[in-house]
Amino acid sequence: MTLTAPHTMTRLHIPTGIGFDEFRRRFEQSAPLFDAAATLRITERGGTWDDVRAAIAAQAPNGLLIFHTIDATPLMAAAGHRTKVVEYLLGNHVTAEKMFRHDPTALLYAPLRILISGDDSDMAVFTIDQPSTVFGGIGIQEVAEVGVQLDRDVAGLLQEIGVEPPSELTDSVASSSS
User: Fold this and answer.
1) Would you list the domain boundaries of the chain?
2) C-alpha angle 44/47/53, rounded to 5°?
3) Least packed by Cβ within 10 Å: which of 15, 92, 148, 175?
4) Which H or E element spans position 170?
5) Upper half-sphere CA count for residue 137 (Cβ side, 13 Å)
6) Which residues pair with 88 in a beta bridge?
7) Where does the chain show beta strands of DSSP type E?
8) Which residues contact 21 (CB under 8 A, 6 or more apart)?
9) Each residue's pLDDT tens digit, 33-79
């Protein structure tokens, strides 16, 4: 039997006021690339979850890491498009586990998908489905609360980069609805 659970998300398009290339550089500096090999060596050597937590904390100075980058710019350029666009998978395993323990469905949305694109003036636009609305849609209060924390983590990351985060990220409250 198929179970359906419709839910709504809020997409935020945040103009940064920073040129695309500079914003991308700052973003990748503020949210470093996840060192999967180093973290997996911990588990291969019999390390504990506390060891993994410490390794992630050391890797993620702002609480978030880049798991993967997809630069669609060259492929879209081949089709005649001039817009710069890069997609990122951004998150933190420790944060994801706080949701996973309540419902593994949370991993449909963790890590977060981020899109950085250039506008007509080549200024970066940061686009994200607001985490509190994404995870609130799972319908579990504890998962929704982590979504609110992710709103604040993304807001902090934007501040670190030099972008004033929108109130949607700084003033969100946990709401679970399905």
Assistant:
1) 11-170
2) 115
3) 15
4) helix 167-170
5) 17
6) 69, 114
7) 11-19, 65-71, 85-91, 112-118, 123-129
8) 84
9) 999 999 899 989 999 999 999 999 999 988 999 999 999 999 999 99
